[in-house]
Description:
By secondary structure, the chain is α+β, with helices and mostly antiparallel strands. It has helices at residues 2-13, 93-104, 129-145, 151-164, 173-179, 224-239, 252-258, 265-289, 293-309, 315-326, 354-369; strands spanning 20-29, 41-42, 44-57, 62-67, 76-79, 113-119, 185-190, 195-200, 206-212, 331-337, 344-350, 374-378, 385-386. The protein is globular.
Amino acid sequence: MKAAVLKKFIEVFGDDKNANVYFAPGRVNLIGEHTDYNGGHVFPCALTIGTYGVARKRDDNKLRFYSMNFENLGVIESSLDDLKPYPEADWTNYPKGVIWAFGEKGMTVPCGMDILLNGNIPNGSGLSSSASVEVLTGFILKDLFGFDVTNQDLALIGQFSENKYNKVNCGIMDQFAIAMGKENHAIFLDTADLSYEYAPIKLEGAKIVIACSNKKRGLGDSKYNERRFECETALREIQQVTKVNTLGDLNEKSFEQFKSIIKSDVRVKRAKHAVYENQRTIKAVEALKANDIALFGELMNASHVSLRDDYEVTGIELDTLVEEAWKVEGVIGSRMTGAGFGGCTVSIVKDEAIDTFIEQVGKAYEAKIGYAADFYVVEIGDGPKKL
Length: 387
């Protein structure tokens, strides 16, 4: 891939003198969905697929961007003197947002750049192509200009830029998982205080399989912000009778004790998901530590049911992929992953069942939905790096 992106860089920008090549992964969340903005735990891992970037400094203030994934858009030009988000700037609003965010944090980028990107994460799949671009951009800025930032800082800057510049009210999980990725480990992250531990993923005789529904969705215009508002409202109602900072501070017992204070049945369901999903995530990590992969799979399945029935973010595409997965012998667990309303499912599948899984689930999905899903057998990789 390094040779391919450098070759394209020469084609687009004339030569590759002083150009460096970088990589940032995508991520998948194994369990703990829609908990990251509710002060709960998440359990994501970085993948070996992600975004490759070639970058070099310029001697003016021009920013020139090119993506091999959107070749029809050609070179999109911008300038350090005008870092506002424009609709016509398209995907470049993500790297521009990070450059802007660095400036907001007192790290002004001193000169323009030529940047070429090529991602092998399916676009709009929910495997965090946007967060991958954000962390990659931050890593490029750190390397090219010597900014004193840690990988954890890069995650926070990426989230800040997405919240404030791109106006998507996302939690910290995606950027954190990508910036802090570690090969063959998932990250057990408490989003309330950013304390975390690496948990080794030992799937002897099984692999992680991602099924991409190919239903495109945009986070900002989905129901994401609505769900977030419903949870925040439910939290404020509960705070009238007990001292909690987040829904993640509650367990199943305390939630059942206080749920009657929530004035809407819909908000009860939303808050229930946030509380119970957080507890499922804690139990899932304990199961892994005890080498109980079967229990981990059961908790994944329960997570999907809750996302479908209480949080209502799945939809026919994701439900079909998961329900068909559950029918296949050798599937340890399967659930939607990401924000929902399209995107992907994540399944843990025994090695000998992978081919059957892809064929059977793929066939049933196409028959029901009318177009094909894509399948990726993935491995857990490291965070961002210079190649």
